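Re: that backbone. Tokens:
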């Protein structure tokens, strides 16, 4: 009977891995290194597609600027080139400091990549004088009274689209999801008994679980069990689906295609803005959710956790409202 080999002994007896092939010589041309950087950003750093796309646009502008200035190779770029690029963006394109700062961020990461591959000796973007950013404006949000008025008005619309919109906007209002997160929700991600939503591949490609209120549980239960089965095929996994207005007898069967962010923008513009009387975006729902959490609790850490923010500084912009407990204490003092 042979003895089973495990652990360290098995590792010592395992064949050695093959020696990797020598690293190919990389080009020092700026433009040649952008595609490789974007792949590294996406796969090694696990950045979201939107981040990769934005960085690609930033680098395309920088390469175009360098080409016009007669700069072709990475070792020709120094801190003066970076700062001149930023000055050009502000002077000729009228870009704000926040936009220039974001492009600086993309360049810093790009030169980290180049330094890792020994194409440059230092990171010139890290030496550039940072943009002095103006104070961030408090986020625009909807009050609880406005939220309740909107949901009450939507409940009176009995069409399939109207019922879907009640569930969709209640989820944005009461769970604080980003529009892309709402679009990616599946029925399996909804735990009605556990009162939570499982968010997959959120910002930064991070998953998280969001608790939901009994009100939202009731709305989602009605959508999932009663209305949604009448407008999608049984094998569709998506929670919020597109509904066509045509063929009312079949309730617009469309093989369960999910909503996309553009469709949510369209619904907000056509149904929420007229009810509210002012312009809002899908992200205003998230601003409202986080603001209401902080307003009721006065706890930034709680708001940070529920919003899925990595940095508390991101949540701190919602401290523009006075928490209810502090208002009550103030009223007591001023009696």
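Recovered sequence:
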């Amino acid at each position: 009977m042979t003895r089973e080999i495990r652990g360290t002994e098995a590792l010592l007896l395992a064949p050695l891995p093959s020696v990797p092939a020598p690293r190919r010589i990389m080009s020092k041309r700026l433009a040649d290194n952008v595609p490789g950087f974007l792949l590294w950003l996406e796969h090694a750093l696990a950045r979201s597609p939107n981040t990769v796309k934005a960085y690609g646009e930033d680098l395309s502008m920088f390469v175009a600027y360098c080409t016009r200035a007669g700069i072709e190779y990475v070792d020709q770029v120094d801190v003066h080139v970076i700062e001149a690029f930023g000055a050009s963006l502000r002077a000729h394109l009228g870009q704000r400091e926040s936009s220039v700062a974001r492009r600086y961020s993309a360049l810093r990461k790009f030169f980290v990549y180049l330094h890792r591959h020994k194409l440059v000796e230092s990171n010139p973007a890290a030496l550039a004088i940072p943009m002095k950013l103006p104070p961030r404006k408090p986020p625009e949000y909807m009050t609880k009274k406005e939220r309740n008025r909107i949901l009450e008005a939507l409940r009176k619309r009995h069409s399939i689209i109207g019922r879907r919109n009640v569930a969709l906007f209640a989820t944005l209002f009461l769970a604080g999801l980003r529009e892309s997160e709402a679009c990616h929700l599946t029925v399996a991600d909804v735990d009605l008994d556990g009162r939570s939503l499982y968010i997959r591949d959120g910002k930064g490609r991070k998953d998280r679980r969001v608790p939901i209120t009994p009100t939202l549980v009731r709305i989602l239960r009605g959508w999932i069990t009663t209305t949604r089965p009448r407008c999608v095929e049984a094998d569709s996994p998506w929670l919020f689906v597109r509904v066509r207005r045509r063929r009312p007898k079949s309730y617009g069967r469309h093989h369960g295609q999910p909503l996309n962010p553009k469709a949510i923008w369209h619904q907000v513009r056509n149904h929420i803005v007229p009810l509210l009387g002012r312009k809002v975006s899908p992200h205003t729902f998230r601003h409202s959710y986080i603001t209401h959490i902080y307003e009721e609790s006065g706890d930034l850490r709680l708001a940070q956790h529920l919003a899925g923010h990595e940095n508390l500084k991101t949540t701190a912009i919602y401290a523009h409202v006075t928490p209810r407990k502090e208002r009550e204490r103030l009223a007591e003092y001023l009696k």
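The chain has a mean pLDDT of 87. The chain has two domains: 27-127, 144-328.
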